[in-house]
Amino acid sequence: MLTEIFEMQSLNEEDTLRMGKCLAAPLFSGAFVALFGDLGAGKTTLTRAIAAGLGIPDGILSPTFTIVREHESGKLPLYHFDAYRLSSSNELYDTGFQDYIVKGGVIVMEWCENVCDALPKDRLEVHLSGSGNAVRSLRFAAYGTQHAALLSQFITKMGEMQHE
Ligand code: ADP
Ligand code: MG
Q1: Does pTM top 0.90 for this prediction?
Q2: From CA 37, how far away is CA 127, in angstroms rounded?
């Protein structure tokens, strides 16, 4: 069930990094962040900030050739998927995707449009658009009560940060 929607603009990379940090704080074990948007929209940038917010020191690479990278040194384990090279959900299942889902931790997945039918029903979708030097638009849609709470807490945090 879709419970909450929120949209905001990002004027530059720093804005997107700030959003990632605010999103990291309320993340929970089992959270699924589904990123949609074209090349250069800012998906890896947002993921990098989420990782930093979780206290993962080793940084985030664009995992284009590896499909999944595991980061287990932070507050919660982070499994960073990139479905760019996948053309079906079956190919995603071949990576052991279901095992990551039951393991807990946080999954952030780029290029979710390639594997739509494999996404868990409860998730936070982030649709990013814009590229180059253009302003980015980020549309958040939460499915399920836990992810709706995550989105609400993110919105609160963004508001607090603006007043700091
Ligand atoms: P994706 O993973 O979606 O392909 P990346 O995060 O790897 O995109 O790259 C986004 C690029 O766009 C980076 O070079 C970044 O510096 C630049 N950029 C410019 N404006 C923004 C913005 N508002 N948010 C995120 N990235 C931005
Ligand atoms: Mg990327």
Answers
A1: yes
A2: 6
